[in-house]
Amino acid sequence: MNNRSAQVVAATLAFLLIVLVGVTIFIALSRPAVPGPTPTPSGHATAGPSFTPTPGPSSTGAPLPTSSGTALPTFSFPVESPTPIILPTDTPSPTLEPTITPTPSPSPTPSPAPTPSPTLPPSTSPQREVTVVDIGLDQRSDIAGVQRTISFFVDGPSLISARLSNVNAGKVRMCLLRNDQEPQKECINVHEGTLSRAVFDAGQSEWNVTLLGTSGVAGQFGSLTLEFNALSPDIRLDSFRFNGTDNPHYNGFTVVFGTGADGTFRLRAQIDDGHDNPYQWHLNVAVDDVPVYDNTAGPDTSVDQSVAVSGGTAYTVLFEEPEASAGGGLFPVFVDARLTWP
Prior knowledge:
Blueprint: H1 3-30, E1 127-136, E2 148-155, E3 158-165, E4 172-178, E5 181-190, E6 193-199, E7 204-213, E8 221-229, E9 234-241, E10 253-258, E11 263-272, E12 279-287, E13 290-300, E14 302-309, E15 314-320, E16 334-340
Antiparallel strand pairs: 1-8, 1-10, 2-7, 2-9, 3-6, 3-8, 4-5, 4-7, 9-16, 10-15, 11-14, 11-16, 12-13, 12-15
């Protein structure tokens, strides 16, 4: 190669270098800014527009001469599409399960200590026992029915017991009450049963037991046993029927008791039919079924009899109408009685 050829080649290469540098600068200056992706309403990102690079300027004339006589190549610079940026959606914070604090089991409420019952003072009188045997009872359902009442006096502190027994049929309403304090009445409806009451009085108090049939049983009867403390027993029987020997459970009364000392048994009775008519009567006092006193008298509306008794002895007292039917059965007849002994 001669110097002329070398100069031509060098000039050609210099020209190509200038062209390449110019194309590069033109592309860099004419390339627009790439916008970032805009999130769509649905939360998904869409890729931005892609650009096709414009090829740099090339000679519009005949191809430049080269040493080999071929045309110069055209250069193309690909531009990468921008990678879409997907904004992360907010990840919901995990829901915290509420901490459940177990409800403590309630501590058992201590039961209040029972109020101690007052101690019954020592008795100041002897304990007594009295039984009214086979009392004929009226019925509550009977419009003409009348309850039987047994009254007694207590001297000083005492534990009273009223026990119903030997009832032939059905139930009986039995009540125990203090004579002057009706609200303290206690009642039970039983075939057999017991009512009790503590007495704290230092002096004398009066108590009642009432009996009335509740089962509608005709001819019902039962026995009542009383235990209490008394210096000298004083028993009162009220509204006992006095019908005659044909109706033995409704004919007066039978009372069993024990004496505490030698002395006198006394019976005072009133016989009443509502018309002041007098009636026959029979009084029998016995020890072990052996009579120590037996008397039939009348007719009377009142009776007052006394019998000597020995201490520490059990007696049975029978008071009745000796006729088959009192006064021929013209009127209902009742007897009230008061019994005292040492």
